[in-house]
Amino acid sequence: MITSPEGTNDLLPSAASSWIAFKAKALEVFSRCGYLPIETPIIERTNLFMRGIGEATDIVSKEMYTAISSENLRRWIEDEEPPKQKSRLSLRPEGTAGVVRAIVQHDLVPPGAAPVKFVYAGPMFRAERPQKDRYRQFNQLGIECLGSDSPTIDAEAIAMLAGFIDNIGLPSGNIDILINSIGCDTCRPSYRDALQAFLFESRDSLCETCNTRAEINPLRAFDCKQEECRKVMASAPRVTDHLCPACREHFEDVKSLLDESGVRYTEDPSLVRGLDYYTRTVFEVQATEGMGAQNALGGGGRYDKLAEEIGGRSTPGFGFALGYERFASAMEVAGIAFTEPSGIDVFIACACEEARRPAFRLAQELRAKGISADIDHQGKSLKAQLKLANKLNASLALFLGPDELEGEYATIRDMRTHEELTIPSNEVVSKLARKFE
Ligand code: AMP
After folding, report:
1. What's residue 79's pLDDT?
2. What percent of the chain has pLDDT over 90?
């Protein structure tokens, strides 16, 4: 048996239905703030992620799946020369870089235009060590808003997310929204220097990875899970003490707008998030119960330099992404279902062989009228067919047997009340169409 690759999941019908319901609910809630759907390719040029996310990040340096065609692979093996940088493609590890690339490429935010707001959903790929709620292929739903650096965009998006979480039924007590500001080009370099100096001084108490981080990406030392490093980082300089006046004002505005919207959040000066492109606001939604280390349900922030970084004109942006599988786990912990189990409208049961063709035709006619209908395809007994109707959660069972064929009528049973009635054959479709309208 060939099984699915490690770290991937089959979304079987119940989980696939939940994923569809999750996306539909998000579209409904986010469209009230003007967000429109966008779909971008699952593969992008590798250098988009290198430039956009940053070569020093774990995602780009360790976790990206980079694809080459079998033709290029053959040439590589034969010529011992790697394919040209330009021809390398990678499976997207996140959605922001692709959406921003599309916005820049199609010039969707010309100077002076109102901000564009997009929502996307789909699979992302990261070569991680698989464990529960950490996969190599997982689904994200995200938004990106480009064209405004106003704190109202940040607050609107975070409040919209809180509204969505409420709407899908996850109790507000089961989540925590952490927020921070990591400054801009003006204030971050001096903070980075101060943090780096602190990390160098604390070298002996930090793990090897944090010592490497100190050299390349000092802010990432806040993400270390090692107890010893966490202790050291608790007394590290805080980014919020180094914000320039413009960033401080922006952050204060975001927080007061959230306060006015009644969104509960916690300020966390150690929240930096792993990607290079963030500026100013960063935030994360964490589950407070039962999720262990994989408790980040989603997160995002402002990225005012990203469009420029990938070759566009300077365009401020804000976005977030939610992990569907993590949300599904948080819903499970809270004992809440995404969707009610649904059933079919009519199951047509045959009491004799001669009824099977008329049953097939009738099912087609009902489906054409928008009624969900099913029949037995395995020559089951009448009793077994009724069992199947129950399993399919049918509202009605429609019987066709020798008497019905002879008398040109159908017997219909309400599967809940068990009441029965007969309808002339030529009125079945119209009567049922009216009932299920
Ligand atoms: P990130 O793009 O890393 O900020 O991730 C955003 C969200 O996607 C996280 O909060 C998780 O919910 C989810 N996520 C990220 N990586 C994985 C993964 N390997 N497996 C499952 N979900 C993930």
Report:
1. 80
2. 83
134 Cβ closer than 6 Å to some ligand 1 atom = yes
Q: Quote the CA–CA distance of 186 and 133 in Å, as a whole number.
A: 37
Asked if residue 323 has its Cβ within 6 Å of ligand 1, the reply is: yes
Residue 94 near ligand 1, beta carbon < 6 Å = yes
Cβ atoms of residues 177 and 285 within 8 Å: yes
Tens digit of each residue's pLDDT (9 = 90 or more) over 26-43: 999 999 999 999 999 999
Residue nearest to atom 18 of ligand 1 (CA): 134
**Ligand 1 close to Cβ of residue 325 (< 6 A):** yes
Q: Is the full-model pTM beyond 0.85?
A: yes
Supply the residue whose CA is at minimum distance from atom 4 of ligand 1. 299
Mutate which of 138, 272, 306 for ligand 1? The one with the most ligand atoms within 8 Å of its CB, which is 138
For tokens 């009624």, name the residue. 371
How many alpha carbons fall within 13 Å on the CB side of residue 192?
17
Query: Which residue in 344, 161, 152 sits closest to 254, CA to CA?
Result: 152
Q: Is 400 a residue whose pLDDT tops 80? A: yes
Q: What is the pLDDT of residues 187-228, one digit of tens each?
A: 999 999 999 999 999 999 999 999 998 998 898 899 888 899
Q: Supply the residue whose CA is at minimum distance from atom 2 of ligand 1.
A: 94
